[in-house]
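Researcher: Sequence recovery benchmark, item below. Answer with residues only.
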């Protein structure tokens, strides 16, 4: 595995690979890798000749009072895991090079960035779409892989790619869960044993929603009440939102049919904020 820290070197390497006719796959991450990240890498591996994984904790997607300085970082472990999973190039640019002095350009997808996560983190997606655009210019991939756990992010990036006519294919990998059902997240390292036990109400409520639909339930408000009741049953978990929305527009829906809908949850356990989701439809269930 090759490690690259210079943006110019990454661009030259990408140009060389493309000139050789090789297909470049790209997995953008903020590090603190877990099996969910490695699933993205493995999916990319199946569709690419060369896989690039970036590790960059992007300061512009953290709002005031969020955990940028505390965000878990373990570059040596990340490098080892990435190489073992088949990464060809680990790209770790420096923040001062990514955002040089005087940088003032933003990429923003208006509309879907202002609801759900955007309501609670109003500058978050602007930071995500800006850095992803820059990383696309640096890595020059043929495809990029994102995770279903960050469903709103994947939708917004897909919209950005469409609107800006980017010649990049987007792949979305299923959410990887621990054996107890908790969706894998770098922020899970913040959870104490007791907080983790409380956090399991999130995945448990998603399973209840799936069962509701399998058993014939179709009313969105009834489903949302059931999920909210499960989340707040012990009082230890505080939801930011519980929403049932269209998977393309993120508009709220009133009834579950054969068209896929997204059940999205964000909740706080102590100081740790977690998100999760599942896709529901009347005929089949996906998680």
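Model:
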């Amino acid at each position: 595995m090759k490690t690259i820290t210079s943006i110019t070197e990454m661009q030259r390497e990408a140009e060389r690979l493309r000139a050789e006719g090789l297909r470049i796959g790209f997995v953008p991450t903020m590090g603190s890798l877990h099996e969910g990240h490695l699933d993205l890498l493995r999916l990319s591996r199946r569709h690419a000749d060369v896989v690039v994984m970036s590790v960059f904790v992007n300061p512009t997607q953290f709002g005031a009072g969020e955990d940028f300085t505390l965000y878990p970082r373990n570059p040596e472990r990340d490098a080892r895991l990435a190489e073992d999973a088949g990464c060809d190039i680990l790209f770790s640019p420096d923040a001062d090079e990514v955002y040089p002095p005087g940088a003032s350009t933003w990429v923003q997808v208006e509309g879907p960035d202002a609801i759900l996560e955007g309501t609670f983190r109003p500058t978050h997606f602007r930071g995500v779409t800006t850095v992803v655009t820059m990383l696309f210019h640096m890595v020059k991939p043929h495809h990029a892989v994102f995770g279903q756990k960050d469903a709103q992010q994947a939708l917004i990036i897909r919209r950005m790619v469409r609107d800006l006519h980017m010649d990049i294919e987007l792949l979305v990998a299923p959410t990887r869960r621990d054996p107890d059902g908790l969706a894998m997240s770098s922020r899970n390292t913040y959870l104490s044993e007791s907080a983790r036990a409380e956090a399991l109400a999130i995945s448990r409520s998603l399973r209840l929603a799936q069962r509701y639909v399998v058993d014939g339930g179709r009313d969105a408000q009834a489903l949302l009440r059931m999920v909210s009741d499960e989340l707040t049953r012990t009082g230890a978990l505080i939801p930011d939102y519980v929403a049932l929305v269209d998977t393309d527009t993120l508009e709220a829906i009133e009834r579950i049919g054969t068209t896929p809908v997204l059940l999205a949850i964000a909740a706080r356990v102590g100081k740790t904020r977690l998100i999760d989701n599942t896709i529901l439809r009347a005929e089949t269930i996906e998680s």
